[in-house]
Amino acid sequence: MEPTVEPSIHRLRTRFGVLLGCLLAVGLAPSCTTPDGPPPHASDKPVDSEPDSGPYVDAGPAGTVMVVSSANLLPPAWQITDAGLLAESVPDGGDASVAYLNERVELTAALTTNSNPCPVPFTTATGKTYCDGFNAVDAAGQAVVVDSFTYLGTGAPCYAQMPTNPTDSLTLPSIGGVWGDNYNSTTGVDQLVLNLATCADMPGVAQGTPYAGVNMPPMTTDIAMLLSSFSPGATVTVHGVVIAAWSSSSTGSFGFSMEDPAGGPGAGIAVVRPSNSNSTTVAPNLGDYVSVTGFIVAAGVSYEIHL
Fold first, then answer.
1. Model-level pTM greater than 0.85?
2. Which of 23, 83, 159, 272 could pair with 142 in a Cys bridge, judged by C-beta atoms 3.0 to 4.6 Å apart?
């Protein structure tokens, strides 16, 4: 069967559109949907777009997501104090962190932000360019690329405070999110980025109450076992905790990152339901412990399960 290419998909991390977490971003509700339409600052920038997961190949039965339990503790974040571990410009920086792709990360260091030049540009179909992220720079000048759009979209209450203009600058004591691969399937280029998953990932601009699930999920290690040995295109079933999520109200597509409950290297994976999938499964919420069945594909140096 010939592959079906998802035409509106742009990048692995980006153009995620309306977020499952427009209120999740501040931990106030399990989910919500932002009305379709342009964001306040960009009349032609899409609110509902999709990530670049490469060609969607109809390789088997429609995938499923089953929620086993909700309001669970999130896996522990990879705690680091050296921005160089995430800085692609530093030898072994970025590359050394590939084992933590699609996992929670928290960087504690004195950081300043800048977006000149913009590290995460996006150009609309009409030729306008917007900045979807910024650099977080430590005292040694090591810069981590931060993506403020992938999971927050433009509907999050803290989105307007993101330092994405050339003259914007913030000072931060720490920053967190989901470590991701900004893979461009057209050019074959990877860009490792820290995706803000909730407003609480940026102290000083956070609004509302952070997520506070308290239930203990089963300590499964399905994802780590899968990533240690698998065949691309194979149908797989794994369990894990949802650590960040997005959904598009205009196309019906959605996706999320999930992680083994205990965390650790090689324990996270992305899940995508493209708009042309025939799966009728519904999107989960942050903190859900889920059982996912789909087929695994490579996306740059990262991997994801297609539904």
1. no
2. 83
